[in-house]
């Protein structure tokens, strides 16, 4: 059961731990988008993504004895870092199972945050679940799922409470809120928070082209899967299908999804660099790409979009810089 | 006359206009520096630098009739954008005199913010003052000086009020506060704010090697000049000498200056990219470079450093990315 009460309880537990990220804007973004654009930069959150909120929410809700045995997570990187940092704060072990082809920065950071990283080969069909189940049984670890877990959804939803408050401060009462969407934990959490605190807003999931399972699921009314598991620069938001818990929430609260191209994400990263002085990762720039380049799919004079994370290697960032006019 | 009363008055006038930038940290920075590091990212301020504070402070203090005739500023870029945006907000003309070799992004942005940009050739000794005086007389413009102006110093000082408040929230009462220093408006303003609201902190000006006029002036007890006017990537903080108004304030309140190399600034930009998800310009990364690479010149367990701006071209940013380990 996921609801606003759980989100408010998570906000209480996160107080003094999660950062209240600002709500930013720039006249240059408004000009590109043709409407007022606000950006919620979760790349400035601890560990460089909103995932710290969910990780800390889950860890802080465990009873002390269970937590002391340690936690286990499957993640391509951002959830890994969020859980690793939360575990380090409590001084408990974290074992993270990551695909061997995850960005090097994310693997390195997860280790540097004190977690034990176990790599598996996703391209060759190795089952991360088999690897994880064995470790779980052996050590008594508690699994922290990346999105289909009420405590994690509640943690991500705290970002929505902040958006509601900050929109009120800006005097905005209606508009589309674009959320970078993988399995839907962030999207569902933010949507529930806005339903309660800023009901004039509508949440829109934004996904990479070819990995638009949520968009298609919202259209068909049932959970649809992606044909592929990888092969897109938006590594942070490539998930096989919407969650069992997150999908009904999105179905009830979210407007149609938006699918953005890799090139649009790279261009949005360039804009975030030049106009907001922010480092966005490709998947983290998906919602901004939607706001800037899919204006015809958006209603209203105002759009708020999340930058969900900024954990990007220099190599990929160079491709974003190359989209700018002043690039040599 | 510059004092804390003027800074508090500027803070009142800036309310709802200037952004309250967050105070950030990362365990990775602490590890490099060997002490706790906090970062005040003024690159997230409107126009990408703290200069908006001073520009808005000056414009908001003018009487309506004077302001309506328009304002004039000399600037290599950041002060230009700060004044241009403040003028645009009031709907009054801004004429900005910029060196022809200023970063293209800064010239373009100043124009895009609605200002009239007049370029002069600093390498060949063309006098910007001569150009400016003629325009001023002809059109009745009010000159907004970049640093040696009490209203501008007061505006920059509002950043110091925020640092004092945020340090208190973090439970820190003592430490060095490193400020990226050109003519000293930012440094003097922050120092006066901390003297009043957080007297356990000591402000340290950080300058580029070869342009350490403030550092040498603090040592000798009189205003010293730099041998060169340009030729360093830290374009934002290259000034000929400390200001007549700013120097006595710095002399009274600031600890010894720190001089950082171009390479250290580029490396600090890389760290800000990787660990803070922030875009810093070379001069804006000077204080962070001091915190990370000049630890032996810093006292205490905690250092707070400003990132004063983020207006950097993609070309220069690539040089910062090249300092990172994962660069190919």
From TrEMBL, chains A, B:
- Lyase as a keyword of this entry, yes or no, is yes
The record's Pfam families line, in alphabetical order, gives: PALP (PF00291)
- Keywords tagged on the record: Lyase, Pyridoxal phosphate
Q: Which domain of life is it from?
A: Bacteria
For activity, the cofactor(s) needed are: pyridoxal 5'-phosphate
Query: InterPro entries of this UniProt entry?
Result: Ser/Thr_Dehydratase, TrpB-like_PALP, TrpB-like_PALP_sf
Q: Which GO terms describe its biological process?
A: isoleucine biosynthetic process; L-serine catabolic process; L-threonine catabolic process
- Per UniProt, what is one GO molecular function of this protein? L-serine ammonia-lyase activity
Domain Tryptophan synthase beta chain-like PALP: where? 16-309
Regarding protein family, the annotation reads:
Belongs to the serine/threonine dehydratase family.
Instruction: List the protein's name.
Output: Threonine ammonia-lyase
Q: Which source organism? A: Roseovarius indicus
